[in-house]
Amino acid sequence: MEIKIRLLENEDLHEYWKSGFENPDKDMFYYTGTTNYPSKDEIKKFIENSIIDEERRHFLICNKEDNILGEVVLMDIDNEYRSCSFRIALFNKENFNKGIGFKATKEVLKFAFRDLNLHRVELEVFDYNPRAKSMYEKCGFKEEGIKRDALFINNEFHDVYIMAILDYEFKE
Hints:
The protein has 5 helices and 7 strands; from the N terminus they run E-H-H-H-E-E-E-H-E-H-E-E. It has 172 residues and is of the alpha+beta class.
């Protein structure tokens, strides 16, 4: 599937809410460790804050018709240490296993290393999401450690893998 990424804008509120949060895909919430369901007003404030946050670049993943499929975010951008954190979510399980997350991740890593001149991008992935962990490894992320029983969701503790990629490890 052909995709594009673009920065989130205030004008995206309605489509962003509709595609990801009005009738949320429970699998997406589970795989991202999300336990609360935000209101439209909370999403509006979130968008407003994301846009002005100098330590964040919030991209939407869109198809060629500009429909929102998900999001990919660089956050906690630290220019001094040239590092940031990364997260991604596809809003509907119908879009899983189609290469969308892989393509979006590669595009945002290109932006992180080329445009922001970062050295390190790190993420966390949960032990019950081996599909995502495998995709991150395919993109070049390496496992650096495990936070044991660090997530409590659905009345169970889960391990959290810490992964990162360095600028010289990134291959376009």
